[in-house]
Amino acid sequence: MKKEDAAAKTILIVDDEPHIRALLEETLEEFTDRGVRLLIANDGAEGLELALAYQPDLILLDVMMPKMNGYDVCEMIKKKHNLQKIYILMLTAKGQEVDKEKGHAAGADEYLTKPFDPDEIVSKASAVLEIEL
Question: What is the percent of the chain with per-residue pLDDT over 90, rounded to a whole number?
Fold first, then answer.
């Protein structure tokens, strides 16, 4: 992939925990080196606002957040605004099967539980963005 192609790619991190945001930023640093834009939101409402404004290629979305939970954010993006092309990967401590079903029902493309493996995040981002590192 040419660098200018990667520049058009965007990842949005939506998580209210500063240490998780920092870990994800560090995990995805190689992508930013390749021209991928990284956006950060501290809560669900801000995440929805950024998602609608920038229509990122990939959203890493927490579930339990202030102002708006991840399920609602996901549903607003996928169903109300019909942005099916945005790949939503939910990252959450809520790992019960019922929680995963709720995430998929809201429109999530994938559901990973915390703690997550940073290599798995890189692998998934590479596949979604079609960028080999």
Answer: 81
Q: What is the span of the domain harbouring residue 92?
A: 3-129
- The model carries a pTM of 0.92
Please write down the HEC assignment for all residues of the chain: CCHHHHHCCEEEEECCCHHHHHHHHHHCHHHHHCCCEEEEECCHHHHHHHHHHHCCCEEEECCCCCCCCHHHHHHHHHHHCCCCCCEEEEEECCCCHHHHHHHHHHCCCEEEECCCCHHHHHHHHHHHHCCCC
Task: Give the chain's domain count.
Answer: 1
